[in-house]
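User: Here's a structure from my thesis project, written as structure tokens. My advisor, Dr. K., wants to see whether a designed sequence matches the one we expressed. Can you design one independently, without my sequence as a hint?
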């Protein structure tokens, strides 16, 4: 559009809007004028028309609440693919975990990217104050390949889970002989008959390890890292209150990006998304939030994921690394590569016994140069 055309269109619009406004107000000289709000309206409409901005773009941006209110036909507080009526963006942009439903949190994350907010800053706002620049690498669901989707998202494929390491590692943790440490009672990769399989026709595998401990026992960060996700146990999440840390290769001493998730806190961890935490720093107290069975004692459910990429997708139920892999927490205690479960299964019997690096209740770390430790402090005998 040339300058003359812009000027003529602006003049026509201003004149059209000014005419009805003449009878609406009177200036200090007894003449007719416009108040400030009318002038702002004229400017906005004139700009939109002059530069061909669609009229709908001048309206307030939709919110997760308004989108759910408009599309949620069955009133369950989320939008299914069948209910979705959006035209500008595909449903998959909002269904981040691929379970066929877009929740408020997923829609909010999608809107954050749409409005020019980086995904990282959107996550920081959702989690609290955050730490500017602490997060990087947030990806979209479209960046996950078929095997990653099958291994991690809602409609899981057992072959894909195995390909990404979700199978028993056959490793044996060796706890210190001179200290008492909370010990694993349900191992990584075992057939699992917990709340997950109760919602499915087929049994699943245990994605992490369970470590019982007394109610309120502090759960420790296993390495230096940054908080990338938190969940308060909404939407029936069987893991209850949980937090996920990301550990860079420099922080862990390994050649991959690590993600450690800690679940079933009795109280929501106070660390904010984007906040740095130190190895051995208490994250929160042990509990059993999200645990449906009254017979199951308080415990920590701990998961380890890793990838050579620093990119990850934040879904409703947890973090999914781009090209992600599962690892046994006992494999992580080796503090060296590889972490791959098949490689662990191939180790000679003598090498399958893994000594646990740990922090003592008195504060000392064993060994003193450890970059990765057990998620509970051990008490000297």
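Assistant: Designed independently from the structure alone:
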């Amino acid at each position: 559009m040339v300058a003359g055309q812009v000027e003529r269109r602006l003049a026509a619009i201003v004149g059209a809007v000014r005419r009805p406004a003449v009878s609406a107000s009177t200036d200090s000289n007894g003449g007719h004028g416009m108040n400030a709000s009318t002038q702002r309206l004229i400017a906005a409409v004139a700009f939109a028309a002059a530069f061909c901005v669609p009229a709908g773009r001048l309206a307030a941006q939709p919110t997760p609440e308004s989108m759910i209110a408009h599309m949620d036909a069955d009133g369950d507080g989320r939008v299914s693919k069948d209910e979705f009526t959006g035209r500008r963006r595909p449903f998959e942009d909002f269904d981040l975990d691929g379970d066929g439903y877009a929740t408020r949190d997923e829609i909010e994350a999608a809107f954050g990217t749409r409005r020019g907010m980086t995904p990282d800053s959107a996550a920081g706002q959702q989690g609290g104050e955050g730490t500017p620049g602490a997060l990087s690498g947030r990806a979209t669901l479209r960046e996950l390949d078929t095997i990653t989707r099958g291994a991690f998202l809602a409609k899981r494929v057992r072959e894909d889970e195995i390909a990404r390491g979700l199978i028993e590692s056959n490793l044996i943790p060796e706890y210190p002989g001179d200290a008492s440490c909370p010990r694993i009672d349900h191992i990584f990769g075992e057939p699992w008959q917990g709340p997950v399989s109760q919602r499915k026709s087929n049994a699943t595998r245990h994605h992490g390890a369970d470590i019982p401990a007394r109610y309120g026992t502090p759960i420790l960060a296993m390495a230096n890292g940054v908080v990338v996700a938190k969940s308060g146990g909404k939407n029936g999440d069987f893991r209850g209150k949980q937090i996920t840390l990301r550990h860079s290769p420099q922080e862990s001493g390994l050649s991959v990006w690590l993600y450690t998730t800690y679940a079933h806190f009795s109280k929501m961890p106070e660390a904010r998304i984007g906040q740095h935490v130190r190895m051995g720093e208490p994250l929160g107290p042990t509990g059993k939030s999200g645990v449906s069975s009254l017979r199951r004692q308080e415990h920590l459910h701990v998961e380890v994921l890793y990838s050579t990429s620093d990119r990850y997708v934040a879904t409703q139920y947890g973090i999914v690394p781009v090209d992600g892999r599962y690892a046994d927490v006992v494999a992580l205690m080796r503090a060296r590569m590889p972490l791959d479960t098949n490689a662990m299964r191939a180790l000679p019997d003598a090498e399958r016994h893994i000594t646990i690096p740990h922090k003592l209740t008195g504060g000392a770390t064993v060994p003193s140069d450890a970059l990765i430790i057990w998620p509970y402090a051990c008490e000297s005998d």
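When you compare it with your expressed construct, this may help: The chain has a mean pLDDT of 80.
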